Structure formats: structure tokens, C-alpha cells
């Protein structure tokens, strides 16, 4: 021992333990077995309050190996602080510089122990051991106070008592609720309401109106952007694409020079009619110079070249279409325009012009005009 010599320790041992059979200790009264109290053993089970995560689980590692039975952590804050002093010894031949250096290291270690104890004390006082429960308790303030405010206040939690911090956050929540109620009363008064029983109907109608307003409507989107050039171009392309397959009952293709698009929007008893006139720009015919570079140009005559130029069709494609229609006419004896459109998957206007040209040349026959 640091305050007793070897001889003093030896004499004390012989005097108190060897020579004296009864040690100079406090004697307790003998108790029989009836007075003994055997407490109920605590069953260890995995739970959240107090937190007892399973060993080697993710939550166990995140909580630094917290042990609820001991109320301590398996991994301490600054866990390797003892490594700096584990091999330190005070020798008799140490000079003053070495002694002061070792004492400074011990003071640093003592300060690190104080910091470790302070952090444990904060965790216990503010209930931060259970991470999930602490997060849920603060999350209830996010809707009214704001997450940025609560997250900023967490850093100042250690400066006040736990009860004071809870009272402060509850006061902020109460203030936010009062502001919300005052704002609602101001809105009711601006709407002309003077009785509380009318506010319930007003809130219900307002919610229904907002739901209808937020409901997506494709027609409203088109009407809101009716003056937008980009929207007009989009409508133009889709209308032209939809009307390419339209044919009248008598087999006549409707005029494609213009298309009138009518929107009808009904809201209660109000009907609003919007008319949009969209002009179609006809594609220019192919130049003869461009047509000469395409395959099959030398296999067609001048009239067929003019037809290919107008319908913007390659000569070889025209030859294939002509042979297909002639073979179909020879097989059936006659051919209709509807049959030609079924066989040829191109623009109906191009099909009509090719069909009329072949009929005029006598290459194919229709029910009214049979091929001679």
C-alpha cells in the first residue's frame, strides 16, 4: 500500500486475522429463513422501453451496445482514453519534468472521464437512449412549428433542464395553434360569417371546392394554354394525325385544308363554347432532281413521276403498290378503294390519288368500272 510499509501490513494481518479468531467487524443478528426475501427474477426480453435490442443487430450497434440491465454502454464515449495511461508508472528516479508530464496526462484523462460522464447524464436526463421514441416525440411539432425550428432547438437542449425544454416546446406548439385559430377566425369574418355553427358548412364547402380545383382536367389544361404557340403546334399535330384515317360514308375523303376543333365545358348551368381554327400546311411536292436520285425512277413514265412528286412517294414504293393493286384486281376481278386502303398502310390521301390514277389508266377496275 502507498501509505503503509511492508512490516506494518504484515503485523496487521497477524494481529487481526491469525491471532484473533474473531475479526473486529460488526456482528449482525442471526436471522431465520422465514425473514428472507427472495425477489422475483427479471426476465430478459427484447423490447423498446427500456430499449433492449437484439445482440449484434443494427440498432444494438447504433446504440453503442447499450445494456438496459446495467444502464451502461458496451462502447464508451472516447473508448480508447485508457490506452494513454495503461502503461504509465511513477518511478523513484523520475525528475520533476517527467513527473509533471505524467500528472498532466492524468489531468487530461480525468477531463475525458468527466466528458464521458456528462454525455451519459444528458442521455439519461433527456430520455435520448431510446432513439425511436425521442424522434417520435419531437416529430409531433414539425407540422405546426416547423422541422427547421425544432432541429435548431435540439442543439440548445443541454443548456436547460429537461422539464424546462419540454415546457418551452409545448409553449411554441400552443402559440402555433393559437395563430392557426386566429387566422381561421379572420378568414371566417372576411367571408361574412358571424356565427360558429356556420363555420362548419363553410369549411366543408371550401374543402370540396379545393378538391375540385386540384382535380386534374385535361380540358382545363388545354384552355389555360390556348394562346401558347407550343400548345397550338401540339394540338395541330395530333388533330392532323387523328383525321388522317377519317373517310366519309360515300368514300370521299373530307377536306384537310382546315379543321375546326370545338371544346364544350359544362359547369353547373354555364356552358362555354371554345372554337379553335387550325390551318394545315400542305407539304410541298418533291423536286424532280431529288426524285431522280431515288431507286426505280427509270422504271416509271412521266405521269407516274409527276404523281410520285405530288404524293412524296419513292418510285420503287409506287411500283410495289401498283403491282399489289393490279394482282388483287386480277384475283377478285374488281377492287374497291376500301380494299386498297386495307392493303396499303400509308396516308389515305396518297392511297386515293394512286387509286384514281390507276383507274384512269385502266390498270385496275372498280365495281362501277370493270377492267376491260
UniProtKB/TrEMBL annotation:
It is found in: Nucleus. InterPro entries: Homeodomain-like_sf, SANT_dom, SWIRM, TADA2A_B-like_dom, WH-like_DNA-bd_sf. It comes from the Eukaryota. Keywords: Nucleus. One of its GO terms (biological process) is regulation of transcription by RNA polymerase II. Residues 280-372 form the SWIRM domain. One of its GO terms (molecular function) is transcription coactivator activity. Residues 1-21 form the SANT domain. GO terms for cellular component: ATAC complex; nucleus. Pfam families: SWIRM, TADA2A-like_3rd. The keyword Nucleus applies. SUPFAM superfamilies: Homeodomain-like. This is SWIRM domain-containing protein. It comes from Strigamia maritima (European centipede).
Amino acid at each position: 500500500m502507498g501509505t503503509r510499509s511492508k512490516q506494518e501490513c504484515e503485523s496487521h494481518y497477524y494481529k487481526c486475522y491469525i491471532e484473533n479468531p474473531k475479526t473486529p467487524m460488526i456482528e449482525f443478528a442471526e436471522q431465520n429463513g422465514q425473514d428472507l426475501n427472495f425477489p422475483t427474477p427479471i426476465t430478459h426480453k427484447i423490447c423498446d422501453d427500456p430499449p433492449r435490442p437484439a445482440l449484434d443487430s443494427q440498432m444494438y450497434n447504433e446504440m453503442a451496445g447499450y445494456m438496459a440491465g446495467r444502464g451502461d454502454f458496451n462502447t464508451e464515449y472516447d473508448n480508447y482514453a485508457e490506452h494513454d495511461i495503461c502503461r504509465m508508472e511513477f518511478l523513484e528516479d523520475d525528475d520533476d519534468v517527467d513527473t509533471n508530464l505524467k500528472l498532466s496526462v492524468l489531468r487530461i484523462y480525468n477531463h475525458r472521464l468527466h466528458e464521458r460522464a456528462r454525455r451519459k447524464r444528458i442521455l439519461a436526463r433527456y430520455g435520448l437512449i431510446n432513439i425511436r421514441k425521442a424522434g417520435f416525440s419531437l416529430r409531433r411539432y414539425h407540422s405546426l412549428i416547423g422541422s427547421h425550428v425544432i432541429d435548431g432547438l435540439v442543439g440548445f437542449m443541454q443548456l436547460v433542464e429537461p422539464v424546462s425544454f419540454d415546457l418551452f416546446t409545448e409553449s411554441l406548439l400552443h402559440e402555433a395553434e393559437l395563430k392557426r385559430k386566429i387566422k381561421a377566425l379572420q378568414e371566417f369574418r372576411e367571408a361574412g360569417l358571424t356565427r360558429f355553427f356556420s363555420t362548419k358548412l363553410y369549411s366543408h364547402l371550401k374543402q370540396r371546392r379545393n378538391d375540385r380545383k386540384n382535380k386534374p382536367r385535361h380540358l382545363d389544361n388545354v384552355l389555360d394554354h390556348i394562346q401558347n404557340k407550343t400548345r397550338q403546334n401540339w394540338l395541330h399535330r395530333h388533330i392532323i394525325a387523328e383525321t388522317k384515317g377519317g373517310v366519309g360514308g360515300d368514300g370521299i375523303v373530307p377536306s384537310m385544308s382546315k379543321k375546326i376543333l370545338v371544346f364544350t365545358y359544362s359547369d353547373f348551368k354555364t356552358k362555354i363554347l371554345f372554337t379553335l381554327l387550325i390551318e394545315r400546311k400542305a407539304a410541298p411536292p418533291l423536286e424532280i432532281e431529288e426524285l431522280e436520285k431515288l431507286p426505280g425512277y427509270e422504271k416509271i413514265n412521266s405521269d407516274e413521276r409527276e404523281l410520285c412528286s405530288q404524293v412524296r412517294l419513292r418510285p420503287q414504293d409506287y411500283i410495289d403498290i401498283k403491282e399489289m393493286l393490279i394482282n388483287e384486281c386480277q384475283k377478285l376481278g374488281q377492287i374497291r378503294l376500301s380494299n386498297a386502303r386495307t392493303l396499303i398502310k400509308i396516308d389515305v390521301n396518297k392511297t386515293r390519288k394512286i387509286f384514281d390514277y390507276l383507274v384512269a389508266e385502266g390498270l385496275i377496275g372498280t365495281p362501277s368500272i370493270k377492267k376491260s
